[in-house]
Amino acid sequence: MKEIFFYIAFSLASFFSSAQLTDTEIRNLKAGCVNPGNSPVYHLPFAKNSKFLLIQAYNSKMSHRHELSVDFKMKKGSKICATRAGVVTAVKKDSDVGGLKDEYLSEGNHIIIKHNDGSDAMYWHLKKDGVLVNIGDTVAQGQHIGYSGNTGYTAFPHLHFQVYDVNGKNIATRFSTKKGVIYLRPGKWYKKIN
Questions:
Q1: For residues 165 and 119, is the Cβ–Cβ distance under 8 A?
Q2: Beta strands in 58-194 (DSSP E)
Q3: For 25, which of 10, 21, 43, 182 could close a Cys bridge (C-beta 3.0–4.6 Å)?
Q4: pLDDT tens digits, one per residue of 109-123
């Protein structure tokens, strides 16, 4: 029940709040036109030498309106890895249902990891029994934590990833890629090299 409440609270927060960035700012992030500052750098959320298509990014029109999150298209059972080190604060792993009905909103298997700066990374739509960590576990950056799936509010197998800062604000994240540290762009393939 606690995980369902946590999911609903974050979903409502992202739905009713703006994405904290304008469409122009998001376009600039995706194009690399903005100085990234000193925000944390995330590893891609999958296994080394794996390559996946980013199908949605910040404020994408399909289902990320007013949301700073990314979706990687993945076959069920693809390895999911921690983007940063932290402590597992929530998991759900018993669901085997998914679809585009509201009744599936609370059915997404997931992992939430709190980083040392107080931010929370969320990994959604994992397969049934595809969570390899437990609440309270400490995980390393790049550690294998689960397997992708198609549970919860989803149209097809993919990994939904998003981060909230210590104040509960949904934030844009930059990733380490072979092209350097960047904000990811939808419609592009990304290969994990580190």
A1: yes
A2: 69-73, 79-81, 86-92, 98-99, 109-114, 120-131, 138-139, 144-148, 152-153, 158-164, 170-171, 174-177, 180-182, 189-191
A3: 21
A4: 999 999 999 999 999
Strand ranges for 36-96 from DSSP E: 41-42, 51-56, 69-73, 79-81, 86-92
User: In which band, very low, low, confident or very high, does the pLDDT at 20 lie, cut at 50, 70 and 90?
Assistant: low
> Tokens 């469409």 map to which residue?
23
Determine the pLDDT at residue 49.
Answer: 94
- Return the structure tokens found at 188: 């592009």
At 80, list the tokens: 């999911």
Rounded to two decimals, what is the model's pTM? 0.82
